[in-house]
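Weekly modeling sync, notes
Attendees: S.R. (lead), two postdocs, one rotation student

Agenda item 3: backlog of single-chain predictions. S.R. asked that every request posted to the team notebook include the full sequence so nobody has to chase files. The rotation student volunteered to paste the first one in as an example of the format we agreed on. Action items at the bottom.

Example entry:
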Amino acid sequence: MRRRPDLPHQPLSAGIATQDPQLRRRLEVEHAAQRLARFLHAAVALMQVLARACGHDHLRGFSRNDLASWHREVADLAGIAWSGSAPDLAAPIRDGSTWTSTSW
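Predicted structure, as returned to the notebook:
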């Protein structure tokens, strides 16, 4: 992938799937593999912590019931629980001389 001249701040891609020979030469496969392995091990360790926090003894114990989103639209799209609060239940906010819950 080449940098577009009309987007001067666009980062260069050093992706694995690149067809640009210059970018392919820059890829240090062994170093990239080690970084990917560290990332995957760290991700699994964090998922294990979350599984234990949800009361599971293994990652296989996770289910849709363990998921929630604070963003109502995301929850609706994903078909998971919404963990936000309705505007009338939110912490009150001062709006002129009265308190409302939508002015944060």
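Discussion: group reviewed the output briefly. Helices lie at 21-26, 29-53, 72-78.
Action items: rotation student to repeat for the remaining queue; S.R. to check formatting next week.
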